[in-house]
Amino acid sequence: MYRMKAIQVINPGKKSSLEIQQIPTPAPDANEILVKIKATAVNRADLHQRSGHYPPPEGASEILGLEMAGIVEQVGHNVSRWQPGDKVYGLLPGGGYAEYCIIAEKMALLMPENLSFEEAAAIPETFLTAFQALCWLAETQQSETVLIHAGGSGVGTAAIQLAAQLFNAQIVTTAGKEHKLEACKKLGADVTINYKTQNFAEEITREWGENAIDVIVDFIGAPYWDKNIDVLNTDGRLVYLSFMGGHKLDMLSLAPILKKRLKIMGSTLRSRTTAYKVNLTQDFVDKAGQLIKDGIIRPVIDKTFDWENTEDAHRYMSQNKNTGKIVLTAM
Q1: Residue 29 is part of which domain span?
Q2: Crossing angle for the helix pair 124-131 and 154-167, to the nearest 10 degrees
Q3: Which single residue of 46, 106, 269, 279 has CA 20 to 30 Å from 321?
Q4: Which of 99, 119, 109, 96 lies closest to 270, judged by CA?
Q5: Which contiguous run of DSSP H or E holds residue 23?
Q6: What does pTM read for this prediction?
Q7: With bands split at pLDDT 50, 70 and 90, how would you rate the model's confidence at 2?
Q8: How many CA atoms lie within 13 A of 265 on its CB side?
Q9: pLDDT, tens digit, for every residue of 291-315?
Q10: Alpha-carbon distance 261 to 269, whole Å?
């Protein structure tokens, strides 16, 4: 049996560590391809998984890593769209922190010639998550006003670009550091707010009046609940992708939900079915693929680490130092 190097989580929990070990190389089934990984990217979900709080879906690889870019090594006997040597990238349910991974034939995407492996690996998780939130869940309409919290994060930087290019939206973003706010402006944000020094609800009301926001994409949760509800317009939509600030509310009035006819949604992408993710991926390519090929939207890469230094990459993310994506290479 062929073997490969992969990063394994040792002692999952608060005192977990990472170690490169030799393990069996996965074998593709009839409808899968085996990819030699050239780059992968770090996501906050990786930190949660190693701490024991975010197990992979049933049947998925236990190896960390939710996206990759690489070269097709082997194809299953039913695969028709790929052959060895093709450059691909795509979303994974796990398995990216390794020399090789398997991915369903229909989940893999052809790498545009204008992208490096590092750039391609930085697209799938963040852009598909942002696309799902804006298009499939919030059903954002042309020229609506969108509030994107954590605008300097990987998903935040993707959401700003998609809101601007797909919907010509008016965009408000929040972040806690001036260099992150400046990056958000360059990506297309009209108004940027430092949540550490400003009250975003007051700033939005001052800029556009009351009930000005049509769509909110939020990763923070409880601390922003009241202000989110205050700024939402009638028929506004609030999409939760994480609860980094906590999920429990001491006092909650449901009245505004009825009064404003609000829609409040939550989603994780990793646990969706393969069929759902295939359809989402295809819709993303149909609507945004040409924008990527033309270089109009691009992943924002903050820093690249050799995968032997993944502990440093995780530490860097846990300290919220990154604007955009953290990429791992040299598998």
Answers
A1: 3-123+270-329
A2: 50
A3: 269
A4: 96
A5: strand 17-24
A6: 0.95
A7: confident
A8: 19
A9: 999 999 999 999 999 999 999 999 9
A10: 26
